[in-house]
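Below is a filled-in request sheet from our internal design queue. Each sheet records the structural input a requester submitted and the sequence that came back. We keep these sheets so that new team members can see what a complete request looks like end to end.

REQUESTER: design group, bay 2
PRIORITY: normal
MODE: inverse folding
CHAIN LENGTH: 377
BACKBONE (tokenized):
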């Protein structure tokens, strides 16, 4: 064998075994600043988990999340794809006018299950009025900004399917047209998958009709830009450097509004905003301090109306508007809350519940199975 081939094989083996070695000795990370999410940890090995296949599935996720120098490999991949003029990376399209738009995958079995979980919950939740608000993501609002020949499933079709199947069991709040008619405004971030607080305000006005509340006018709020240097989840996922930073606006009431926010660990705040996040990468956690198992908000409103919000993070910019109309708001995140939800609602004498998810997340979130644990006993 020629010497250059031996050198090549030696370098290759050194690289492979070196990567394996560093994967073993490197310390696991709990959170990815780049992706702005918790990372999978080593799953617990049990006989049941192994036989069911859950252990191997979770172990694969763990390896993918904890792969040594993962962020650098992802950046290298993104640079190579940009150099080849590719208009998509990691499921994120590099759209027109600096928009990063996440593709929508065709819904599978989980979508059907999630519809059934909500339907069954609303059926057994006697005396509790159920609302469902499935927020469109930017791919449904900004189709014209997608690159030429971009392939994505129809989010609108998925929404219509959910609406048709849930309409007899809950009040479905349609906000698509209200958002679409204002698509020339700053209603979605360009670098993040969330709507802005301006987008959430438009949704709040539509929801007000169903909830029987009189919405405040935009003129009733001080609209303040609190950051002009926000790079969100899609920026991290696409690993592109070719877009400008987003700005974050908040709607601060000009009228008197008080609230006490209590988190699951007992910590309390008199604000719906955690301003310290403006100095961090995860600036969207400005709204309600990010994700928590259970958050309760007691306001200065005296009307005996209590509502539970079962949600994903799209609710965080929406809840501050609800806080002006309900005496209590209880925010439940099924990723972490695994108790009997209906029993909690009965114990707290809550008579209204709002399911607020973005359409894409609603089609694939496996955590809604925890609704099926509800009995109300």
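RETURNED SEQUENCE:
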């Amino acid at each position: 064998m020629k010497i250059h081939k031996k050198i090549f094989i030696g370098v290759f083996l050194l690289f492979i075994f070196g990567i394996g070695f560093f994967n073993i000795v490197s310390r696991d990370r709990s959170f990815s600043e780049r992706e702005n999410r918790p990372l999978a940890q080593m799953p617990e090995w049990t006989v049941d988990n192994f036989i069911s296949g859950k252990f191997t599935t979770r172990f694969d996720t763990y390896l993918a999340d904890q792969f040594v120098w993962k962020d650098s490999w992802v950046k290298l991949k993104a640079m190579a794809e940009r150099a080849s003029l590719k208009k998509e990376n990691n499921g994120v399209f590099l759209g027109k006018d600096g928009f990063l738009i996440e593709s929508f995958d065709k819904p599978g079995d989980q979508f059907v299950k999630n519809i059934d979980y909500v339907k069954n919950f609303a059926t057994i939740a006697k005396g509790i009025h159920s609302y469902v608000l499935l927020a469109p993501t930017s791919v449904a609002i900004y189709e014209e900004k997608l690159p030429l020949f971009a392939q994505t499933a129809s989010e609108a079709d998925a929404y219509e399917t959910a609406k048709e199947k849930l309409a007899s069991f809950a009040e479905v709040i349609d906000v698509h047209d209200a958002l679409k008619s204002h698509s020339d405004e700053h209603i979605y971030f360009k670098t993040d998958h969330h709507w802005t607080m301006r987008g959430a305000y438009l949704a709040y006005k539509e929801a007000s009709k169903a909830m029987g509340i009189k919405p405040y006018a935009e003129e009733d709020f001080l609209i303040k830009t609190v950051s002009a240097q926000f790079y969100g989840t899609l920026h991290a996922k696409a690993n592109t450097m070719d877009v400008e930073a987003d700005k974050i606006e908040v709607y601060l009431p000009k009228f008197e509004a008080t609230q006490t926010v209590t988190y699951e660990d007992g910590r309390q705040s008199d604000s719906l905003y955690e301003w310290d996040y403006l100095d961090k990468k995860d600036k969207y956690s400005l709204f309600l301090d990010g994700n928590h198992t259970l958050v309760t908000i007691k306001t200065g409103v005296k009307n005996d109306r209590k509502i539970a919000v079962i949600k994903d993070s799209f609710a965080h910019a929406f809840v501050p508007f609800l806080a002006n109309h309900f005496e209590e708001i209880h925010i439940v995140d099924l990723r972490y809350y695994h108790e009997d939800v209906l029993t909690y609602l009965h114990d707290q004498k809550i008579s209204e519940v709002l399911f607020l998810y973005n359409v894409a997340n609603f089609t694939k979130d496996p955590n809604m199975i925890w609704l099926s644990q509800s009995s109300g006993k």
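SHEET NOTES:
- Residues 33 and 281 are 7 Å apart (CA to CA).
- The mean pLDDT is 88.
FILED BY: M.R.
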